[in-house]
Amino acid sequence: MKKIKINENDANQRIDKYLKKLLVNAPANFIYKMFRKKDIKVNGKKVDEKYILKNNDVVEMFLYEDKFQEFTAAKSIYDVEKTFKVLYEDKHVLIVYKPAGLLVHEDINESVNTLTNQVLSYLAKKKELDLGRENTFMPGPVHRLDRNTSGIVIFGKTLAALQCLNEMIKQRHCIEKSYLTICKGKLNQKRNLKNYMIKLEDQAQVKLVNKDHPGALTMETQVKPLKSNDSYSLVEVTLVTGRMHQIRVHLASIDHPVIGDRKYGDFELNKIIKKSFGLNNQLLHAYKIRFVKTFGVLDYLQDKEIICPVPELFKKIEKSLF
After folding, report:
1. Are 223 and 190 in contact (CB under 8 A)?
2. Beta carbons within 8 Å of 280's beta carbon, 6+ residues apart
3. Can you give the three-state secondary structure of the chain, one letter per residue?
4. pLDDT tens digits along 192-238
5. What is the pLDDT of residue 74?
6. pLDDT score, position 202
């Protein structure tokens, strides 16, 4: 009989979901067969797969240790150099500055040096990461930034925090996210941009479409100019929706593309900017978040605002162009 005491990072979830994460190498039908055979108990009582685990529950499984070792996976993390900066941290959340050029998650070209792996390495060194086989939770980001966009990324350090943050993101208006960018041309008034888009998966791009286009998704962006001249505008952009490449596509659609943008931008202008400043990607910085509506374990973050200063290259370009 294998006994596991549930901690707060594995509580408040269905037991079958917990067991699928715990017994990651076991077939799903094996887990449900254990329920049918009454081989799973909690606090000495038989339960079904819908039981919601609580902190300090003791889960008992009729499973020998060698099978437990076979069905679970040893956890390991990469010891990678920390290039992010901590903007805010407490027991539940970690809010960081991601530099341009760093992936949030791994892709086909990079699986080791990612922001997520850097954060896990950072937490492990602080002794805040449980890598035991019996623990299924790992901290993670609740949103992402494009590789070449710099700025704020939010991580949940506990399961309860991740659940709250994911719900806040899902409800859209709970966390306000604002960006700074420099775009082509003179923008001298606020704009509220509303369109519909689809993803072009084979090209890793998006396209504006009509409302009745199959699979069309709404896209809304608020644009506020802060500085402008005849050639460029420094703008603050606030997301209402959070679509792929949203800011870049929306600004390009009104003939004010983000400088340096190699997918949607002005390619001739980009050559000039690259020659002058060495900029080889979109100049876009996620500089501010504000917790508009919070709940659960993160209720204490209500109205909290985090600001991330722009990188040195952004400052240099802004100073030169304005």
Report:
1. yes
2. 260, 262, 274
3. CEEEECCCCCCCCEHHHHHHHHCCCCCHHHHHHHHHCCCEEECCEECCCCCECCCCCEEEECCCHHHHHHHCCCCCCCCCCCCCEEEEECCCEEEEEECCCCCCCCCCCCCCCCHHHHHHHHHHHCCCCCCCCCCCCCCEECCCCCCCCEEEEEEECCHHHHHHHHHHHHHCCCEEEEEEEEEECCCCCCEEEEEEEEEEHHHCEEEEECCCCCCCEEEEEEEEEEEECCCEEEEEEEECCCCCCHHHHHHHHCCCCECCCCCCCCHHHHHHHHHHHCCCCCCEEEEEEEECCCCHHHHHHCCCEEECCCCHHHHHHHHHHC
4. 999 999 988 777 889 999 999 999 999 999 999 999 999 999 999 99
5. 83
6. 76
Which residues of the chain are modeled with pLDDT < 50? none
Residues annotated as catalytic are 146
pLDDT digits (tens, 9 = 90+) for 159-175: 999 999 999 998 888 99
